[in-house]
Design a protein that fits this description.
binds zinc ion, 7 helices, alpha/beta, globular, seven-stranded mixed beta sheet, 264 residues
Length: 264
């Protein structure tokens, strides 16, 4: 049992448990973490800013955006987020925003800037971009947390993230991936693994996981709790929990939008 220091707090809110397929129940991919005074956004698919409001969080409150990869269901609302950050008034951003993603993000972002120009440009002392290793593990230190990342099997720029607070409490975010030994290593002993589980077992496609494969990863990593997410519509009529139980016996949560987990 990890010791929890009074004053240190950490929580997770699933903002979008869905995919690129429009759904009133499942917004596109995004998760919000709070670590002490820092608010971290993982992916920014369509609908995320509405879900943030529903989670009582202003876009201005977000200090970090982490992109697992560049597919539109994970990055689609970045342009709107930056544009909204320039609007005069309560949400206008003068405080720093750091975007963290694998190598290649700057090229991707420059492409967006070629299209949208100053509409999405923030002052250089406000917006910074941090590119992580896309071929092996990486690690960075911030005031409230330590970040680790590792490449996973989906796109060249795909990485999974591990956030650990000062008490050693950790949350791992898989992004999109196929079965990945790297993800098992990154998630070893984590308090929570947020793992993609795109399609039911019998509909497995390359580059994505199924409930039983996500369970296999969680069991191999020995995580304390598994949260399955990134559900295509086919998942809503399948026995996702039953399929995951073929390989994983520990605490299990099927994500839904605005689900919040407090880690003390
Ligand atoms: Zn993807
Ligand atoms: Zn995706």
């Amino acid at each position: 049992m990890k010791r929890r220091t009074p004053g240190n707090n950490m929580s997770l809110t699933i903002l979008g448990s869905g995919t690129g397929v429009p759904s009133l129940q499942r917004s596109a991919c995004s998760a919000l973490m709070q670590v002490n005074n820092s608010r971290l956004l993982f992916d920014l698919g369509a609908g995320t800013m509405r879900r943030l409001l529903e989670a009582d969080t202003r876009i201005l409150d977000i200090g970090f955006i982490f992109f697992s990869h560049f597919h539109p269901d994970h990055t689609g609302e970045l342009v709107s987020f930056l544009f909204a950050s320039k609007y005069p008034g309560a949400n206008r951003r003068n405080k720093p925003l750091t975007i963290v993603a694998a190598k290649g993000f700057s090229d991707f972002f420059n492409g967006l800037k070629r299209v949208y120009g100053e509409w999405i440009e923030l002052a250089p002392d406000v917006l910074s971009v941090m590119e992580l290793n896309d071929t092996g593990p990486d690690m960075r230190w911030f005031d409230d947390f330590v970040l680790k990342s590792i490449p996973v099997l989906h796109r060249k720029e795909s990485i999974a993230f591990r956030v650990e607070n000062a008490d050693g409490i950790s949350i791992v975010y898989s992004g999109d991936t196929d079965y990945s030994e790297n993800l098992i290593n990154l998630a070893a002993g984590a308090d929570i693994l947020i793992c993609e589980s795109s399609l039911p077992d019998h509909l497995k496609v390359a580059g994505h996981l199924t409930p039983s494969l996500a369970g296999k990863i969680a069991a191999a990593a020995g995580v304390q709790k598994l949260v399955l997410t990134h559900f295509y519509p086919e998942c809503d009529t399948a026995d996702i929990e039953g399929q995951c139980r073929r390989t994983y016996a520990g605490p299990l949560i099927l994500a839904r939008d605005l689900l919040t987990i407090d880690l003390g």
